[in-house]
From TrEMBL:
SUPFAM superfamilies xrefs: NTF2-like (SSF54427)
Annotated source species: Colletotrichum cuscutae
InterPro entries reported in the protein's UniProt record: NTF2-like_dom_sf, SnoaL-like, Steroid_delta5-4_isomerase
The protein's name in its UniProt record: SnoaL-like domain-containing protein
Pfam families assigned to the protein according to its UniProt record, in alphabetical order: SnoaL_2
Length: 160
């Protein structure tokens, strides 16, 4: 595989941890990070969220450009927390540890999203992918992307 002029050749054995096998110390550590992320969202604490990311962490929300690095993450979560209140429950669907330093988790988040400007609430249902990286011996969020699980057409309105 060629990526930005570099060649990578590798053979991987990927230990797959299904939802029923999330019991390894690595998976438990990743689970703790994901629960901390959920708690930080609930409390709308920007610094708590940002501290869960790697130093070059990225969030890729739908309809926005990616926020890359600590300063951009701080701006992004400040914007998010100033505009919405989330009351959600995270479910971890799977955790796959790819190497001693890389893993990913597939999750869902369901609940209610309230727009603070209008106090209008709506159902919230996302599917999410967290790419995790060990940084200084601790699992952190390296990349986070999500998309809605709501129907494309809802109440006669086509959603993007």
């Amino acid at each position: 595989m060629i990526l930005k002029g570099l060649s990578f050749y590798a053979t991987f054995k990927l230990p797959i941890l299904t939802p029923h096998e999330v019991s390894s110390p690595e998976a438990e550590a990743i689970t703790s990070v994901l629960h901390a992320y959920g708690a930080a969202l609930k409390s709308r604490n920007v610094e708590d969220v940002v501290n869960l990311y790697t130093s070059n962490g990225v969030i890729m929300p739908p309809h926005f450009t990616a926020a890359v690095g600590t300063a951009s993450l701080r701006e992004s979560y400040t914007r998010i927390f100033s505009s919405v209140q989330l009351v959600i429950t995270f479910s971890i669907e799977e955790i796959i540890v790819m190497s001693p330093d890389w893993a990913f988790a597939r999750t869902t988040a369901e609940g209610t999203k309230t727009m603070l400007a209008t106090q209008a609430s709506e159902e919230h249902a996302n599917q999410e992918l967290f790419i995790m990286k060990k940084e200084d011996g601790e699992w952190k969020i390296a990349r986070y992307a999500f998309s809605t699980m709501k129907p494309l057409v809802q109440d006669g309105v086509r959603r993007s």
